[in-house]
Structure formats: structure tokens, C-alpha cells
Amino acid sequence: MKKHFVRILFFAGIISFSNVIVAETSSKTLIKEYSIPLELAVLAASTALDTCLNKGFNTTVTVLDQRGQMKVQLVSEGAFPHSVQTSFRKAFTAASRRVPTSELAEHTSTEPSLGQLFHEIGMATLSGGLPIKYGDEIIGAIGIAGAPGEDDAGNPYDDQCAAAGIARIQNRVNDG
Fold this sequence. Notes:
The chain is of the alpha+beta class. It contains 6 helices and 4 strands, in the order ααββαααββα. It has helices at residues 2-25, 38-54, 82-97, 101-110, 112-120, 157-174, and strands at 60-65, 70-75, 129-134, 137-145. The chain starts with a helix and ends with a helix.
């Protein structure tokens, strides 16, 4: 019994000592990070969905926070089943890469293996994913799937719907 007690004290001492080392070597400042609140995520998603519906498209809209965590996902009646995952991937890509997915689509058109790599790690290189910004900070992202094609000016419909969702909340985002 005494032998086990000594071992427990020994390991408790190691754990305590390692906690001190970790505490001493870790950063002494906190990280401040902005994130899209649920209320604005819902407003952006519903505006984007309405915009697509008004254009005649049954879509899925996903809004994620800056870390790629789900805030809201809306699926219109008649949306294709795969649009759920595709809209998530577009939003995830925009949040992770911090650029519109259409920019990545341009890069992967000249480098097809890059597109395959992105797909393998859960990203999408199709238009329809846009980061949501507060100043220069990415606070979230929106992804739209199910609005195929583009208008006469060459603007993808998915991007148009996503941009409408962001535009709806931008003043409130800027007000902080």
C-alpha cells in the first residue's frame, strides 16, 4: 500500500511540475477573435435563401463561424440532397482559406491536382462561398449550393445569393 502511495505522489508531482512548465512557456496574452453571432448568421442565410428562391433556384445555404463551425444551415424545398454538403464545403473553404471560393476555382482550372487535393480535405473550389468580414477580420463564411450557372455578365448565381446575404448584415457587422 505504501509503495502505491509513493507512486501516486511521484506521478502527481510530475503532473504538477509539467503544469508549471506549460504555464510558464505558454503565451501570457489572450487571443481576441471575432465571430459572427447567431442572429446575424440566420439573417444572412435567410436573405441569401430568399434571393436564390426569387431567382428560381432551390438551394441550401450554410453559414459558419471563422473556425468553420456550423452556425446555421437552411435547405429550401426541392433542393438537391448533395447541396447540403456542397454548401457546407463552400462555406468551410471560404472560412479556412479566407477568400471567395471562386478565386480558388480560377487557380484550380490551371492546376487540376490542386482541386483534387482541396476536395480530399473537405473543401470546394466552386463559386458560392464567401468570407464574412468585420474590418480585416474574417468572422464567418457563407456557402450556397444549388443555383447553377451565371448571369449574362458572367457572375455566378451562387455568388450573387451569398453576396446578398452578406450585404444584408454588413451594416450591423460594421457597427460591431
